[in-house]
Specification:
By secondary structure, the chain is an alpha/beta fold. The protein contains 16 helices and 15 strands. It has helices spanning 22-27, 53-56, 65-77, 89-101, 115-132, 153-158, 162-165, 184-187, 203-211, 237-248, 269-273, 300-306, 326-342, 344-360, 391-403, 424-440; strands at residues 32-36, 39-42, 47-50, 106-112, 140-144, 175-178, 216-221, 251-255, 279-282, 294-299, 368-374, 377-382, 405-406, 408-410, 413-416. It has a 7-stranded mixed β-sheet with strand order 4-10-9-8-7-5-6, with helices on both faces. It has a 4-stranded mixed β-sheet with strand order 1-2-3-13. β1 and β2 form a beta hairpin. The longest helix has 18 residues, at 115-132. The protein is globular, with a radius of gyration of 22 Å. Bound molecules: pyridoxal-5'-phosphate. Residues 114-116, 119, 148-150, 222, 226-227, 255, 257-258, 283 line the site of pyridoxal-5'-phosphate.
Amino acid sequence: MSNRLNSTPNDMRAFWMPFTANRQFKKEPRLFVSAKDMYYKTHDGRTVLDGTAGLWCVNAGHCRPKITEAIQQQAGELDYAPAFQLGHPKAFELANRLVDIAPDGMSHVLYTNSGSESVETALKVALAYHRVKGNGSRFRLIGRERGYHGVNFGGISVGGIVANRKMFGTLLTGVDHMPHTHFPDKNAFTRGVPEHGGDIASELERLVTLHDASTIAAVIVEPVAGSTGVILPPKGYLQKLREICTKHGILLIFDEVITGFGRLGTPFAADYFGVKPDMITMAKGLTNGVIPMGAVFVTDEIHDAFMQGPEHMIEFFHGYTYSGNPIACAAALGTLDTYKEEGLLTRGAEMAAYWEDAIHSLRDCPHVIDIRNIGLIGAIELKPIDGEPTKRAFSAFLKAYEKGLLIRTTGDIIALSPPLIIEKSHIDELFGKLREVLVANA
Ligand SMILES: Cc1ncc(COP(=O)(O)O)c(C=O)c1O
């Protein structure tokens, strides 16, 4: 949609929009036509503060010069190179640069084009890994209630958001779920990681007892669950999952599509929690959201298990036409340069205390039943309107947009995850506007 329309386009029927109330949207369109740093401009000329880094992805803020220039330059130099049996230098350079900032032990990179594909890739690596190790009976995948791992069949199977699953038949077989870690009765209004509930990790032991470890390939969790409405791991929870997985030879996958690239004030959530997974999925902040790209980190142990047999043979039958696309690699390199120059992978740690105080200052607003935060993530849970779940939060979303603030809602939860370049003045503006919205929404 270009500036030249400067008004609502007259026919919006053709585009069936993703995860959108299409009929509502097309009656009252909300279009962004440009963006810079912390702000969007709308088609009707208004300025909107980005409280969500787009969709949890624009970590360095909008239209950053290094990234834009890298893309422009690459598009004129090498637009595409086949991804299978051929390569180009930037794909290797980027993998090395990623390994440099990765948590210890993450030493190899597979490329994808989205978070969903990163999840599918990691699940397939897990199954194939056990098979090449001679443990083909490990076919089960364990996810968690309320987990979000994208929209492809593997991801919705291990995921635990009912609306994303219920329409789609039998999904993957051999999948089970651990309980979620949301305990509002005990943990409401906790600042940071909650005190209660870490023991629920022992439910994984129960699943191991039920299915037997010899049938379980991997456990996948978001270290901090984002899309379900920001659910934090209680103290000790992730450590305990790691212990159980190690004890039973089960791979632990951290889905860091949201938490990767500085969101918690460390490069990855694995660093924040001091827990080493066997694989990490990522996307979003990898290219600052500018070009679709995802990736999966795996350990030497996993990678090396595949490097056997005749050398002319393909070791892993998986990949995408656009795996390591040159323009995506250039965008990612420009993004990593920007993160490095501006210290953005750790900046969240400096801003987290101010962010925490600001979000918890909304506790007295109408209908607020919980506030949660970690790093530069926050959530405000609202009491649902009787018989009309999601309506209160959606109405807050619309009012915020009118006031020049972008928030995200899921169920009756408002989720916030601003660009990591956010300044205190933006935090004041964000929560000042949000207070007005919540009061007006009473
Ligand atoms: C944890 C997690 N995994 C996977 C995905 C899917 O990513 P994508 O929308 O790029 O496919 C998301 C998206 O929000 C996510 O939050």
